[in-house]
Design goal:
Layout (H helix, E strand, L loop, with lengths): L1 E4 L5 H15 L6 H6 L2 H14 L5 E7 L7 E2 L30 E10 L9 E9 L8 H15 L4 E7 L3 H9 L3 E11 L2 E11 L1
Parallel strand pairs: 5-6
Antiparallel strand pairs: 1-2, 1-3, 2-4, 4-5, 6-8, 7-8
Helix pairs in contact: 1-3
């Protein structure tokens, strides 16, 4: 299993992981009618537009498993030189002809970039998303994606990394705590089909 930069060719796989991730992690938290209505094809269409608009601002990486997989961070946290993948291909996840640098299966995704409001110290960034295919949870995929996010944000000069997590998502909160994050006191409440969903902000220094 390797981590590499996400390409547009990965959008469908990432959307499927995101939708199944919501339907698995948020069962009993988010209204079931909302989860049942989620559609991977619709999510992929929206994600493809966002991926194009946010190029150069939002950093997306995928975990790839299977024969021929190659990437920037091994599952055990080992790194290859910045700017290249394990096979010497460019760090954007493509070969010279623009095709994906591996033929493996996408099993996880992480995205991070500038924090989305101004109420944080300078040098802060936000972890927007970290999803692992449900059948691969607990196998090290999430840890490898988190390691990549921490390493990459620090290399960009980020001093504080923040994220938002549902207060009732106990598994995710435990994972973030093991990764060095802790609640910083900020909370927000969103409404989903009439159900209030409390989110807590977690932060860690780099």
């Amino acid at each position: 299993m390797r981590i590499r930069a996400m390409t547009e060719a990965d959008v469908d796989a990432v959307a499927a992981i995101r939708v199944t991730g919501w339907q698995t992690a948020y069962r009993g938290i988010v209204p079931q009618s909302f989860l049942d209505a989620m559609d991977a094809a619709e999510d992929a269409a929206q994600r493809r537009q966002f991926f194009a608009r946010s190029a150069g601002r939002v950093h997306n990486f995928v975990a790839v498993d299977g024969a021929g997989a190659a990437g920037g961070a091994a599952a055990d946290g080992g790194q290859v030189p910045a700017g290249s993948l394990a096979d010497g291909s460019p760090a954007d996840g493509t070969l010279a002809d623009g095709s994906p640098a591996d033929r493996g299966e996408v099993v996880g995704w992480v995205a991070f970039g500038p924090y989305r409001s101004a109420d944080v110290p300078d040098g802060s960034a936000e972890l927007y998303a970290l999803y692992v295919r449900p059948d691969r949870i607990g196998t090290g995929v999430g840890r490898a994606l988190m390691s990549t996010a921490l390493t990459r944000t620090k290399s960009l000069g980020v001093r504080h990394l923040l994220l938002w997590v549902l207060a009732e998502n106990d598994r995710a909160r435990r994972f973030y705590a093991r990764s060095g994050f802790a609640p910083d006191g900020a909370v927000t409440v969103d409404d989903c089909e009439g159900v209030p969903l409390k989110e807590m902000r977690y932060a860690r220094d780099l």
